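[agent] plan:
  1. take the single chain provided in the ticket
  2. run structure prediction with default settings
  3. attach structure tokens to the ticket
  4. add a short note for the reviewer (M.T.)
[agent] executing step 1
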Amino acid sequence: MFNSKTFSYSRSQLILLVILRVVIGWHFLYEGIAKLVNPDWCSVGFLLDSGGVLSQFFISLASNPEILSIVDFLNVWGLITIGLGLILGFLTRISIPAGILLLAFYFLSHPPMAGLSYSVPSEGSYLWVNKNLIELFALAVLFYFPTSGIIGLDRFFTKTK
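[agent] step 2 finished; step 3 output follows
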């Protein structure tokens, strides 16, 4: 397992990696809070609008009210806890893979492939690569270039050699 204190970063590398971690964390946190405070929010529309090879899986999640309530709970609180973990640099060895997994679900539910269209228009024109995939790979970079052991609450819990 990687330890932030075994890496030697330049000042600018450390600052940019921490900023990347915090802005992605903010995006997760804000999306989670926006869903939490909206009493009308539910993932059913997003799931029913799924496309691609896994669309039937996502549609099946939406068709069962009990599973849908679990998916909604996990989505909202997953976004919030992942966001807080990234912003605070706390439990990033858990929050980063959890964020990658959540983004992978978003990407696989609505893959940006030619021939697929969705009821909610996307923010741009995408082919194979969209913001979810970019953010997923940015989190992968943060996983392999950890900073929370230097700037973050994880520094209080990591062992130094």
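[agent] step 4 note for reviewer: The chain has one domain: 9-156.
[agent] ticket updated
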